[in-house]
Amino acid sequence: MQNPDIARLFDEVADLLEIQGANPFRVRAYRNAARVVRDYPDPLDDVVRSGERDLTEIPGIGDDLAEKITAIVTTGELPLRKELAAQLPPGLLDLLRIPGLGPKRVKELHDKLHVTSATDLAQAVEAGRVEELKGFGPKMVEKIRTGLGQAERVERRLLLDEAETQATALVAYLKAGGGIRDLEVAGSYRRRRETVGDLDVLATCADGTAVMSRFAAYPDVAAVLAQGPTRATVRLRGGLQVDLRAVEPDAYGAALLYFTGSKAHNVELRQLAQEKGLKLNEYGLYRGQRRVAAATEAEIYRALGLDWIPPELREARGEIALAREHRLPTLVSADAIRGDLQMHTTASDGQATFQAMAEAARGRGYAYIAITDHSKRVTMARGLDPSRLREQWKEIDAWNAATRGFTILKGVELDVLEDGTLDLPDDVLAEADYVVATMHYGLNQSERQLTKRLVGAAEHPWVDAIGHPTGRLLGKREPYPLDFDALCRAAAGAGCLLELNGNPERMDLPDTLAAAAKGHGVRFVLSTDSHQPGHLAFMRYAVDLARRAGLEAGDVLNTRPLDEFRRGLKRAAGGGRRR
Ligand code: DGT
Ligand code: CA
Ligand code: CA
Ligand code: ZN
What we know:
It contains 24 helices and 17 strands. By secondary structure, it is α/β, with parallel strands linked by helices. The chain folds into four domains: about 5-155, DNA polymerase beta, N-terminal domain-like (DNA polymerase, domain 1, Orthogonal Bundle), CATH 1.10.150; about 160-245, 2-Layer Sandwich (Beta Polymerase, domain 2); about 250-325, Beta Polymerase, domain 3 (2-Layer Sandwich), CATH 3.30.210; about 335-575, TIM Barrel, CATH 3.20.20.140.
């Protein structure tokens, strides 16, 4: 059982308790449990089963939680969850997947309108009854209406990091069984899309039947949907569907190419093949009956007159023309990243000290980080006012003075307020090494006002970057309306960076917008928005985004050594003096 599966059970208990109107402290305890489990870097299943470590040695896990985790790992279920779920209509939990609907609103819908399913809800919306409830304005009802249409689609896609946890464990299991030569997860996972519908796994092996049997016997399998000698499909606990195909070694490249997709990329490739009098399918590239290429992707692309195209670019967005002209970008890679430029500490809503974050970042091989706790407006996260911020900066100065080979930049995640003003005065911002501006409030304002706020921030002399620029939360919140071209023009003109936030829930900027921003001449910074040391690994996903947007190392300022990074910031050009 993977950590996300365990965490989901705790989250469901919290949801169920909240729908039943239970004590908020009890609800919060389960939410915290889910977070601790989700954030733990190693499989807790292994920790429990190996018995080498006591669960309670893990920060955030006490006796009670340890007992529950052990129960889940050994029985696959949490008795309390089952008990609570039995007390409520089964369709009610599905409603939580609709964007905008949390447990509180679901409770209201259930208590007042006796809604017990998505169908009930759709009827109540159309009859105009939802609008009359407290806490449901016309905007919310509109959102629910859209959400009802999307719910099917949203609920079946997994965030990339969760798919990665599942894929990594499954691949390790299959390989441990032996008899497999090549093994790769293709599909949207290999293209590093921010959400994944299902996993498409390819293998070459001597004995397909044996590999399929081992696959079907994987302990995380909830149901075997199909099983034959060369192909099997299963559904894992947590709902993710996985296809495994055994393919011939001499056609492995053709299968990998086909099942990596995207569909649109495949269609363009097949057309190109036809124009050359060839035929391309999952078994190879053919001239008449003769197979001209099949063993590797590279030889198939070559036979089509193309350079090999990195999977992240295979979306039919012009990559085939670039490959023909040998003009594909040299995509930025994870090992080119030298620092992480957004993270939080215990001073605001993070879970570790800045010292611990710095040591962890150094351990990853970075040369620098920026500590960017929230500014004061974000009271929920204990945002910092000027005096607390200066206190932290003094401690950072002392740490830097005592440390060689690594530098902490004194930063802040600065709120851009509803009226467009900034949450901290200029003299404080001028003292910082790095300021990333973001919006957390008033997000339902008009496109015009939201654009004005971000453009103003981008042009402000002491704002170095705009953080999570669209505000989207995958599966939970759509991007706010924004004239993105206007923001890009302002950012490019002023030398303000746009952030690619690798937090798996955000993945913000989206790849297509990042590509558009590059077209405007914008430069980028990659960051993780870490709230604890384990989150620093999210840089991987920021790099995925950057690669899908076609960015090269030169487009990303934090691929530069510290002195160059600092010289590349807007504030290095003189900040306030320029105005
Ligand atoms: P997903 O699973 O929704 O996140 O997205 P993909 O891209 O993994 O799509 P999936 O799982 O339906 O199919 C995997 C790949 O197989 C897809 O990227 C391209 C290839 N493929 C599947 N069906 C077709 C098809 O009808 N035509 C073509 N040309 N390729 C297909
Ligand atoms: Ca797929
Ligand atoms: Ca598939
Ligand atoms: Zn935060």
